[in-house]
Predict the 3D structure of the following.
Amino acid sequence: MKTDLLLSSFASLLFGQLCLAQTNETAAEDFKPSSLNQPNKQYPQVNSERRVRARVVAPQATNVAFQFLGGSTYPLTKGEDGAWVGVTQPQDEGFHYYQLVIDGAQVPDPGTLYFYGGSRWGSAVEVPAKDQDFYALKDVPHGQLRQVFFHSKSTTTNLRCFVYTPPDYEKEISKRYPVLYLQHGGGEDETGWGSQGFTPFIMDNLIAAGKARPFIIVMANSYVPGASFGFAATNQPPPTDSRYSQTIGGPGGRNYNPAAFARVLIEDLVPHIDVNFRTLADQSNRAMAGLSMGGMQTRAIAPANLDKFSHIGVFSGGSLAVTNIADMTTFKEKVKLVFVSYGSRENGAAGKANVEALNQAGIKSVFYESPNTAHEWLTWRRSLREFAPLLFRD
Amino acid sequence: MKTDLLLSSFASLLFGQLCLAQTNETAAEDFKPSSLNQPNKQYPQVNSERRVRARVVAPQATNVAFQFLGGSTYPLTKGEDGAWVGVTQPQDEGFHYYQLVIDGAQVPDPGTLYFYGGSRWGSAVEVPAKDQDFYALKDVPHGQLRQVFFHSKSTTTNLRCFVYTPPDYEKEISKRYPVLYLQHGGGEDETGWGSQGFTPFIMDNLIAAGKARPFIIVMANSYVPGASFGFAATNQPPPTDSRYSQTIGGPGGRNYNPAAFARVLIEDLVPHIDVNFRTLADQSNRAMAGLSMGGMQTRAIAPANLDKFSHIGVFSGGSLAVTNIADMTTFKEKVKLVFVSYGSRENGAAGKANVEALNQAGIKSVFYESPNTAHEWLTWRRSLREFAPLLFRD
């Protein structure tokens, strides 16, 4: 035991920011496999104290750690069976990206499913939330999550997006639906909302309960091929190897450029969706929302395109101040809803104040705070749950 | 150079079955990132000699190897920058599962996208095939790949499948389509054909070229929850934690049981598809095919359900002998096509002979051999390319 602590202290010198791994003796012994594990994989596990227990077999390694993305690092301890084990401090409920560090190699945990975040496909663990029922797969009618390729004139490539269609879409053959364009965060991609965001289950459950109107959700990639970082497009050409930007898991060679994404969205994607899906193709039936970077994009793109969008959602991505709205008359006429949300562990004070000011200016606005969560997916799953029922009600 | 060889020889004692890593000096220096890499990841790479060059940063490791699933292991060599590098012998064209072994830990390569095979989500590398154009993403009308959940009465769970709908499905609102049920191989799942199988691109390209009739493809998971290995169902209960069998990446707690899968397919899935998609819901418009284990399932299920299926495809999964057909009169009346394929590096002699015998018995049968491939996905992509144009022509 003392040796373990000494080893941990030594390891902390090597790894920098470190938390001491909790020994198994003091953690509640009700660990269960994370719901995001691969089939039949027992680790990582989570207990009732919201601690994560990791385990990886690495018999010849000298140093193994568990590292939350942008968070704490926990050294693991080697057992006689060649497996390294460790327990973290209690975590917030919800979804957490992490990686293993094995003798300096940053690798995914072979026990988990993989998710795109932090600009890489990697591991994640789910700490069960008390309200997890709202994003559970239930015996209700299910919508479909569809992989869709669309041609982008502005980038001369074929790009991928995902489209959620509600449960009755295939049965109500002549019915048309409103559309929400829903963007991921920085370092994530078009798979985020459909996978770790649980968008299909959240919507299926809301619709089955009569809480949300059935509508289509389109999830695209905010990173546009050939666009450089920053707010001005450059003359950097698109990738010359077209296959390199067209692999199944997500195009490569992309950078964040809101102007470039706005062109793809307005000129390529919206028209493609309106031609290939049974949409209500007018401004009053089109919303845009996003989380973090996607929220910033929404704040930039939707107000500049009020002929296209009527409902605006910004999740952990800032807010709209009255003073930033250039033409208040048009904004009041066109915008049916401004929704702003934050996790309670983020600083949402300015967002809340801005929402109040918008309401006083006569613009219907709603602020939501997710209890006991930070800049993480449980905040955004809940934000979608709160936002969706407010859409397309006018 | 001599030191490298000595180290490699020493490493071979540790790793068992080993191939000597080719040094960079003797490999053609035209390496390019594999098309299955994550965005902006440069490794693994493949050169014109079909060699794979791997690289992973693991500064404190003492032993790092590149290991093809079920194939050779190549020790990597540490450079002064803390990165381990190595080059494999030339590989067959196509898709190859592999993993990294870092000081004994079997982990995915952080450079690649991940694919389900070998009963785990892990890495793969693509050696460009001379005929890769047939499964490339092109400027043609694209179908959709849809994630669909269906309720399974026989297992009392909600199961996931993927459904490919052809490009005109959303535009020809009253048109109905034939359906192919297409199964993955052992250790794989319902994601295989849509991801590493490139089914959507293969079909989009065949349909655009007028080579295949547009039809729907349904890809389910052959492993049924609560069913044990073997040909007889047991009384093993389904997993009690329903969330554990319902995660995005694939249900857990499953085992292979052809009888259990046949029940799911015939009693749950086919009815669900016929209600929720615009199918031509009769025997003459329904096909079943599969690769390897999926081919064995097809040989077991389709001939036993000739009121349901008219076209049969078996890829690298054995073949149908005339002597195994119990009721030849019914078989001849009901079966419009038997298709059998193998890679040229597999032993397809019996399959070819059986196809000839079936033809002589008056049953339309086709044999296809994929040049220079083994029991791998390029064999099966090509098999689909050859099989699809033959379907639903009567």
